[in-house]
Amino acid sequence: MLRSPWARWGATLGFALGGFFDGILLHQILQWHHLLSLVAGLDDLRLQVLWDGYFHLLMYIVALAGLIGLWRAQRRGGVDWGRPLAGAMLVGFGAWHAIDALLSHWLLGIHRIRIDSPNPLLWDLSWLAAFGIVPLVLGWRWLCRQGGGGGMRNATAAMALLAAGTAGAGAWALMPPPGQELATVVFHPGAGPREVFAALDAVDGRLVWSDRAMGVVVMAVPESRRWHLYRHGALLVSGSGAPAGCFNWSRI
What is the pLDDT of residue 34? Predict the structure, then answer.
């Protein structure tokens, strides 16, 4: 079945969605690990977030390739919409988690599912079974059932729900926990202690923690004054939304 162009590109799209699932859930919402959490010498949080961004960019490219491939397959001879295509995407989704477990967790050792667990292997195996093996088996069965398609309408509805769920998870990742008085602030490269303490004075904040370079700090600051940190060298401030960090780049 994977010899069919639509099945291959459907699996490619599912592979990218598997990467997005891990990146959004594990890197941002649960914050169990980053892409390079266990790489020696990369203890700077800004570098960890930067490589997470590169990873998501790669998944965007893979997803775009899958969508273009499906569009071309549709123009040439049609796509088997419905359950077979969903099966191909599940195969790709499961393949991502299988490859990630074998390559990233065990061969390269750049991260584990939950690095703060006393038994990380158990988490690796459980995640592989739930999101790797089960989707692979289920997707392969659906892919091989040629007569079980649900039509274009069902496939479109499924894709819409998947897109809405992904967008909702991303929005949830931007929301601070309720009652959180602390804010994590990422300052621009080159910012030093003098600039950080000047920002603290400007917003009546209190320093709680910082990395060695003081590029990433945790401070106690009133929620109403967090936006003012963007005027004092901050690139990103937790609890204030990501777009404002992008606006700050316009001054460079």
Answer: 93
